[in-house]
Amino acid sequence: MSVSDDFLGADDLLWGVSTSAFQIEGSFTAAGRRPSTWDGFPAFEGDDASVACDHYRRYREDVGLMRSLGVGAYRFSVSWPRVLAGDLAFYDRLVDELLAAGIAPVATLYHWDTPLAVEQAGGWLDRDTAHRFAEYAERVAARLADRVAMWIPINEPAMVTLLGYATGQHAPGKALLFDALPTAHHLNLAHGLAVQALRSAGARAVGTANNHTPTWPASPADAPAAEAYADLHNWLYADAQLAGRYPDSLADRLPIVDGDLAITSAPLDFYGVNYYNPTRLRLPSEGNPLPFELVDVDEYPKTGFGWPVVPSGLSEMVSLLRDRFADLPPVYVTESGCSYPHSLQDTERIAYLDAHIAEALKAGVRGYFVWSLMDNFEWDSGYSQRFGLVHVDYATQERTPRASYEWYRDRIRR
Asked: May I ask the CATH class of domain 5-413?
């Protein structure tokens, strides 16, 4: 196991919850955190994350909720802009509070909040950003490596490339399509350099957290479209990190320097899968510059976000990974969750978690982290989507556990 058996729950599984810094911390003052690419980026109805869930000031209350929930681990992220402002003390306090509550700290170094100055200097399009990230990783690890149980350098690099640089849906809002591909290599390089920095600082267990989606062709003739999307979404990152290679369809588009792939594929102690839904593809219509088009998966129920609920896609994805990588490290589901309206009697979320946990156990994973502990700022969707086991009243910051919180607590105990 990557963590002590003291943190394991029923089924010898590491049960956890996940959040990210930008989405919950708040307290974004000039002195406390430098600007990120998300500051000022358009969100639903003009929402912003300046307060979010006020976790920066209320973290003890939130750790108390986790203690009552009975989770063995908490996956949080460290804010790169906050660390650049000199505030690592907050994460010292958070980690100590977690350990005092008997909860394993699982730290993600980057969950999409690129410092604005780094983006203005070229962002992930610039190779030098990978080295700036490694310096940041070294700084955080020097402070926390003695107490953090598991480390994840970068969360979902696919989403940074696809949504942040290819389509512009996320910050920094660039719509470069295939010209965004250099960011994928620089993110993988940053991952590998951070793995080196973490190991040098004595980190106990280092892994990753990649977003994965089974790709389904709309018809047998559409198989090339599904394969092209799988290369972009799944294998562009997993291949580099686990096998030191890139898909043949994309390798010529990437700015690879000799020795890079030995860095990107530094050995890992665990592999994190973030799973939400499968994706259906067809061949593109005339005039589409991409080799695929997305097709609605309409035969399944949908979450409040409009995502199809397909629990079997989780075990399908883990099987695909095991088939592709003979030496796949132990797998953890590092994110799995759903957005539904804010009702406290959230029976749909309970059904979602019950089915997905069953598939996770069927797939033989080592841990399951629910996204998310609490409602939060959902990027370009602002506060319109609610993923939390705990309801947050954003006007008062009152936390109210939902029925799904009670269900998950009982499931952990069972």
From this structure: alpha beta
Distance in angstroms (rounded) separating the CA atoms of residues 307 and 280 = 12
* Mode of pairing for the β-strands spanning 398-401 and 390-393: antiparallel
Say which residues have a Cβ less than 8 Å from residue 57's Cβ, sequence separation at least 6: 26, 27
Which DSSP letter does residue 133 get? Answer: H
Neighbouring CB atoms inside 10 A of 101's CB total 15
Instruction: From 263, 214, 237, 73, select the one nearest 155 (Cα to Cα).
Output: 237
Do the bridges between strand 215-217 and strand 367-371 make them parallel or antiparallel, or are there none, so unpaired?
unpaired
d(CA 330, CA 86): 35
Q: Where are the strands (E) in 63-161, listed by range? A: 73-77, 104-110, 150-154
pLDDT at 11 > cutoff 80: no
Annotated catalytic residue, options 25, 227, 335, 378: 335
Q: Is the dihedral of CA 337, 340, 345, 349 positive or negative?
A: negative
Query: Could you confirm whether 316 is annotated as catalytic?
Result: no
Closest CA to 229 of 212, 208, 210: 212
Closest CA to 372 of 198, 8, 111, 190: 111
> Is residue 1 over pLDDT 50?
no
What span, in angstroms and rounded, lies between the C-alpha atoms of 406 and 401?
A: 7
Separation CA 362–CA 342 (nearest Å): 30
Residue 46 phi/psi, 5-degree rounding, is 75, 15
β-sheet bridge partners, residue 151? 107, 206
Percentage, residues of the chain above pLDDT 90: 94
> Percentage of the chain with pLDDT > 70?
97
Q: What is the mean pLDDT of the chain?
A: 96
Distance between CA atoms of 31 and 86, rounded to whole angstroms?
9
What is the enclosing helix (H) or strand (E) of 273?
strand 271-275
Instruction: Give the number of residues written for the chain.
Output: 414
pTM over the 0.85 mark: yes
Q: Where are the domains of the chain?
A: 5-413
Neighbours of 260 (CB within 10 A): 21
Section 1-13 average pLDDT? 62
d(CA 203, CA 359): 30
Residue 274 reports pLDDT greater than 70: yes
Q: Single out the catalytic residue among 97, 156, 316, 359.
A: 156
Looking at per-residue pLDDT, the higher value among 159 and 40 belongs to 159
Say whether 335 is catalytic: yes
